[in-house]
Amino acid sequence: MNSCQPHEHLSSTPSIVLLAWLSLSSLAAATGNAVMLWLFYKHASLRTISNRFLASLSIADLLVGLVVGPTWIVIEFWIQPPVLSSLFYFEEILWVHTTAATTFNTCCVSIDRFIAIRFPFRYQVSVTKKRCYTVIFLVWLFSLILPFSMFLIDYEPMINYFESMIFLAFIISVIPLLVVSFSYVRIFKSAKKQFKRILAGENPTVNHDSFKARTIQNLKAIKTIGLVLGACIITWMPNLVLLLVECYYVLENNWARICSLTFVVWPWVGTVAFTSSAINPFIYYLRNQEFREAFRRTFRWLPRKCTGESTPQTGLKPSRRQILRNVVRSGDAANKETEL
Fold first, then answer.
1. What's the rounded Cα separation, in Å, for the pair 138 and 133?
2. Does pLDDT of 203 surpass 70?
3. Is pTM beyond 0.70 here?
4. Where are the alpha helices (DSSP H) in the chain?
C-alpha cells in the first residue's frame, strides 16, 4: 500500500491547476471571513444571538484559509507523504476537524433559526447568550477531540482505517446534514405559510409590525442559510462518496485502485471541499442587508451602487418588495436579538 508508483500521483498540469485553485480559495476564505468577523466585532448591531453562531462558522472557515489550506498545499502537492505516515495522519486530522467544525456550526445556525421561527415568543427566553456560548464551546471542543479518536484504532488490517474514516464521516457529515435538512423542511413550510397569511392579512394573531418584521426577516435568513447549507452539501459530500468507494476496493483487496484514488482523486475532492469556506462569506454579504450596510459604513472608500433606498420618488405605486421593506423597518427595533 505504501509503495505506490510515481505514475499514481498527479501529473504536473493538474497539480498546477489544483495548486492555483486552492491558493485562491484559501486567500478568499481568509480575506472574506476576516472581514465578516471584523464587521461582527466592530458593529454592535450585528452581535445578535443568530450572528454569534454565524461568527463561529466564520472562525472555522477562517482557519481553513489561514491554516488548513496552506498546510494542505505543502503536504499534498510538495511532500506527498505515503499512506499511513505521520504527515498522512496529520492531514486526516485536519480534514476531520475542519469538516466537524463546519457542519456542527452550520447545524447550530439551522437549529437557532428553527427555534426563532417555530417558537418566536419563546426565542429570547430559550436562546440566551450563556446557552449560545455553551453550545459554541461544546461544538469546538468536540470537533477538536473527535480527530484524535483515530489514534485509538489499530489499523492492522487496513480495512480498520477505512471503516473508522467512514464512521467519522457519518458522524460529522451525514448526521448533521440530515438534522439540518429536516429542520429546514419544517422551517420552510411554517415560514411560507405564515408569510402568505401576512401578505393576505388573513391571520388576526399577527397584526402588529414587529411580528411581521420578524417573520419576513426570518424568511430571508432561511434562504441565506439554505444557500450556505447547499454549498456545504455540494462541496463536502464527495468526501464521503470517495471514502465509500475506497472501502469497497479495500474489501476487494485492490490496492492499486486505492493508491490511484488516494493520490489522484483525493486532491480534487479535498480542494472542492475547502472551497466552501471561501463561498460562505460572499453568501452572507449578498443576502444579509445588515452586513452590507455595515460593510459600506466600515469601508467608505469603496464605490457604492445605487440601492432601492436611494431611488427618487416617481409617484408610482410601490412594489410589494418596497412594502415589505417598510414593514421590516417599522418593526426593526423589536426584531433584534440580545445584544452585547
1. 9
2. no
3. yes
4. 12-42, 49-63, 69-73, 86-118, 123-126, 129-145, 159-169, 175-200, 209-251, 255-260, 266-287, 289-298, 320-330
